[in-house]
Amino acid sequence: MAANSRLTVATHALAWLALAHRRGHEVLTSEQVAASVKSNAVIIRRSLGDLRRAGLVEVRHGAGAGWRLARAPEEITLLQVHDAVDARPPFALHHSEPNLECPVGRGIRPALSGVYGRVEGAMRRELAGATVADVLRETLTS
Amino acid sequence: MAANSRLTVATHALAWLALAHRRGHEVLTSEQVAASVKSNAVIIRRSLGDLRRAGLVEVRHGAGAGWRLARAPEEITLLQVHDAVDARPPFALHHSEPNLECPVGRGIRPALSGVYGRVEGAMRRELAGATVADVLRETLTS
DNA sequence: CCTCGCTGCAACAGTTTCTGTTACACCCTG
DNA sequence: CAGGGTGTAACAGAAACTGTTGCAGCGAGG
């Protein structure tokens, strides 16, 4: 159960907010979003809270409270969503520092950091090329 | 401690095998590799076992046992290493199936799979562009 | 002003994954 | 055939994520 579904949950929530708004619902509550994702309302609030801190959604308190997008779905990329909810890199270096008396142990960390940085850059470029509007459009055609 | 350092450990082991071979050591034992990585010999045997099943290293049993590369370090890409030791994708879909009565819940999984597949493809292309020889060269220049 | 619905957040349990450790059977070179 | 090293299973500990409960706080509307 430990695999990262945060980007999935957050994107699902955003797409649902976008569709509901288009259908005339001003806001959705975390319960309503949780019903579509089939998850817990607290999980959804945690995720939407991250998105709020990143400026991607807005929240309304009091009676008639709920969430809505803070900007058009065409202007929210999955990279922004990823950075908002999950900042963990795909690869980690050594847990304990390698043996510095070995030439490989001494120099391998910067060498691997370079490779990992390029991999992460490629990943980010791909995520930046997809928006919530793209996902929603593809979602509705299937 | 749960972050994935498997690709790091395996690449470190391969680079060390390559350098030791160049220096005249026919094979290295898992203890010798563990001394450079500063990890446990069993961890190294697990990692090298994965690489052996992928055909990237060879093992010799009996007295004078140990490990060596099965091919030139220029012909081992980090993508092969990654596939040998760690087949887990960076993003997961929903843990429990979303609500199929919601239009978003119904269609979002294939939509996200498409995006995630493109991201993974970009990652794999980048990993395929770096070899153990590249990493070793960069390691020794720092 | 007060009520009520929803958010915000802390605390905790359960699951999974990964590293590390011990133990032991097995293999094969010398 | 002896001994060093591999192969593998079993288990402990740490970390991350999801899920759950509980409760304080906010504010729109009566």
Automatic annotation (TrEMBL), chains A, B:
Q: Which domain of life is it from?
A: Bacteria
Under the heading InterPro entries, the entry gives: Tscrpt_reg_Rrf2, WH-like_DNA-bd_sf, WH_DNA-bd_sf
* Protein species of origin: Streptomyces hydrogenans
Q: What is the lineage of its organism?
A: Bacteria, Bacillati, Actinomycetota, Actinomycetes, Kitasatosporales
Name the record gives this protein: Rrf2 family transcriptional regulator
